[in-house]
Amino acid sequence: MTRAVILLSGGLDSATVLAIAKSEGRECHALSIVYGQRHVVELEAAKRVAAAMGVDEHVVHSLDLRVFGASALTSEIEVPKDAVGAPGIPVTYVPARNTIFLSLALGYAEAREAQEIWLGVNEVDSSGYPDCRPEFIDAFQEVIRSGTRSGVERNEPRIVAPLLHLTKAEIIRRGVALGVDYSLTHSCYDPASDGRACGHCDSCLLRRKGFEDAGVADPTSYAG
User: Fold this and answer.
1) 9, 59, 106, 127: most buried by Cβ count inside 10 Å?
2) Is the bond preceding residue 157 a cis peptide, omega within 30 degrees?
3) Does the 3-214 domain belong in CATH 1.10.1740.110?
4) How far apart are the C-alpha atoms of 92 and 129, rounded to whole Å?
């Protein structure tokens, strides 16, 4: 059986990725990262998703990126509201986050002799993040090939990004077909004190539109 490390944030995309990996017969080892994010409530969502889908192992790693700041998700910078599609890279971009996360997943994959690393990056609804693009994935694959023992010896692990070219609606439809319970997931960047989604950050707006376009009822409780 092919062993895979799944980067599991607790969001809609990563839950769908896990469901796809399970449906394709992978032995799934989930990795969730607590990095000082404003929306740390997503970790509880990741635990719910991992338990509901039955992963083989779930590792939660702490890494405090607040020491660097420079992002609305890891500092006191205000999270933009109702700003989807604004030009430029938004302040919710966390410096080098996916590079760091993939590096951790790579270490985990090498330690478990996993053949694959799965993640939910998405170019279509990426909010302009540069580390959600195909060229970034291709570049990191080359890092694996040239800079790790598993890469040199077996050209593994291979990065799998099944959502890369899908719209949010297509992702939701795929997940629904696989039985994903999206009420277990969390997407909001700036949740209310009671954990409800704000309804107005980029992530909430993309999620709302995705359910609407997919013709699927949105199970999310929004504060506004």
Assistant:
1) 9
2) yes
3) no
4) 9
This model's pTM is above 0.90: yes
**Six token digits for residue 126:** 């990426």
Could you tell me the two tokens for 197?
Answer: 């989604």
Decide: 57 and 16 in contact? Cβ < 8 Å.
no
